[in-house]
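*** Backbone structure tokens ***
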Amino acid sequence: MTGMPNDPAGGESRASEGGAGAPPRPDDRNTAPDLTREYHTPEITVQWYASRCIHSANCVRALHAVFDPQRRPWVDPTAADADAIAAAVLRCPTGALHFIRHDGGAQEVPDVPMTLTPIRHGPLYVRGDVEIRGLDGLALRRDTRVSICRCGLAKRMPLCDNTCRNSRWREPVAADENVATGGPESAPPSAHGG
């Protein structure tokens, strides 16, 4: 699909506007439906779940040749080898990106042990074999990487949707200033899994 010359979404609405044309801008709350776009090569398929993307941009920093939010389509799996793409996808802290290997390469496995990493003024990144349940006890999602809301303002609780950025939410000052919280790249795959 082609858009207007100065249209960075390539004629499609951004994920933050309910479309699937690009990840949300860093300060936008994500309101995209949980649709999947798949980008294929004979070696690997990259899956994008637009509603899960909070634009940590870890994929862009890891492998900009493949993940470029200014290009349409924004994912080009022909721009790198399957191993490099898989490694970049595993840096996504929300599960917005996944991959399926068709070349015999390793599939994603959950991190062991499960890790929870709070991000200053942002979500809680969880890595491992994660099952999120609603108040009724029913499973909402099972994944290897999720981003949990800490501000309490997300529309799709308990999952982060970037509302913390839009609202400029700030966490209370910790009693122990030595308590560490991470930044956007704080949740890379562990050495033991995923």
Observations:
- The chain is about 10% helix and 20% strand.
- The two ends are 34 Å apart (CA to CA).
- The CA atoms of residues 109 and 176 lie 35 Å apart.
